Amino acid sequence: MYVLIAGGGKVGANVTRSLLRQNHEVTIVEQRPDRFRVLEEEFDYRVQRGDATELHVLERAGIGRPPDLLLAVTGDDEDNIVICEIAQKRYFVPKVIARVNDPRNQTHFDMLGVAPTVCATSSIMALIEHEVPESDIIRLLQLREDGLEIVEVPIGNDSPSSGKRIEQLKVPGGTLLISVAREGRSEIATGSTKLAPGDRVLAVLQPGCEDELRRVLLKH
Amino acid sequence: MKAIIIGCGRTGSSVAHHLHDAGWEVVVVDEDEEALSNLGTRWPGRFIVGHGLEINVLVESGIESAEAVVVSTDGDNTNIVIGLIAQRRFHVERVVVRVLDPARAGFFAERGLHTVCPTSIAIGALTEAALVSEMVSTEGASI
């Protein structure tokens, strides 16, 4: 297939390299003179110099054919949006993929129908949340001889236990909620204690009860 | 009537003053605090420091109740995207966007965005002025 790539930074250059290795036809557009020279040494005639938001530059790069796919991977979100708009609406490029540099701009891409998008920051954040859940049980103390442990559970905004009284929760067997710390003060946990976001619940439990407690207090 | 001016350079600041003089309530937005000086020492309206692409900045400026939005930052593509947001997300009745590149101004005008292209205006005026002086000198020669 024929792929037009706007933006010859690390992303653009590496995608070009990979696509060429797969025997695809690629044209890459780069504006910065220094970067252009570096790319030209490697990719030769496949690099076009210019601002990929200018129609005549895109035309010189062959957007009129049109390409099967256009990648807008410059370091500027407004540029990427404008490139995709022009490609889709003026040259009827059947498929575009855009890079989102600042995740706060994702909403603009979505509203203007520029999709699919790729955002490195958002991908990394999603991985972090997967690998290191923000709110999870913190092990405070292991009472090895008694076979018990004491843990702290931070209640989050979206915890299923938030807004509920302890007596409404199905606290698993082998677990006892001890106290609830809120705004620097702790109270003994009773059935009528209502949990709220920001609360830190202290619990004592037998080994192996952690998952069940996590499910009841933290996860949907 | 309320107008939001995004981008407070030479153009934006002058438009702000003109609209204010015409009795409009004018809010000016620029990401550079220093740009306030372009409005002179006695700007009676509001001035907000922030980027026109940030939704909360636009909301703070009062875009939801504005009759007009004028976008004139120094970036064509920034202006186009802000203009599209004002039009499609906030449904502002009159959105005017400065775009220096005639080709892009033309394309987005076809797509329903009110673009003003200073380059095209200058090309027209300069060409016309040259043609007029040609006419004058031909007339002079014939006398």
Q: Tell me the helix content of chain A.
A: 25-40%
Number of strands of chain B: 6
User: Low-confidence runs of chain A (pLDDT<50, min 5 residues)?
Assistant: none
Radius of gyration of chain B: 18 Å
Strand content of chain A: 25-35%
Figure out the total of helices of chain A: 7
What is the number of helical segments of chain B per DSSP (H or I, 4+ residues)? Answer: 5
SSE run of chain B: EHEEHEHEHEH
Major sheet strand order of chain B:
3-2-1-4-5-6
SSE sequence of chain A, one letter per element: EHEHEHEHEHEHEEEEEH
Query: Could you give the count of β-strands of chain A?
Result: 11
Task: Give the biggest sheet of chain A.
Answer: 6 strands, parallel
Binned, the helix content of chain B reads 40-55%
Strand order of the largest sheet of chain A: 3-2-1-4-5-6
Q: What is the 3D shape of chain A?
A: elongated
Which structural category fits the helices and strands of chain A? alpha/beta
Protein described:
The complex is a heterodimer of chains A (220) and B (143). Chain A has 7 helices and 11 strands. Chain A is α/β, with parallel strands linked by helices and 220 residues long. In chain A, the strands form 2 sheets. Chain A has a 6-stranded parallel sheet, sandwiched between helices. The longest helix of chain A has 13 residues, at 77-89. Chain B is of the alpha/beta class and 143 residues long. A 6-stranded parallel sheet of chain B has the order 3-2-1-4-5-6, with helices on both faces. Classes of the chains: A alpha/beta (220), B alpha/beta (143). At the A-B interface, helix 4 and helix 5 of A face helix 3 and helix 4 of B.
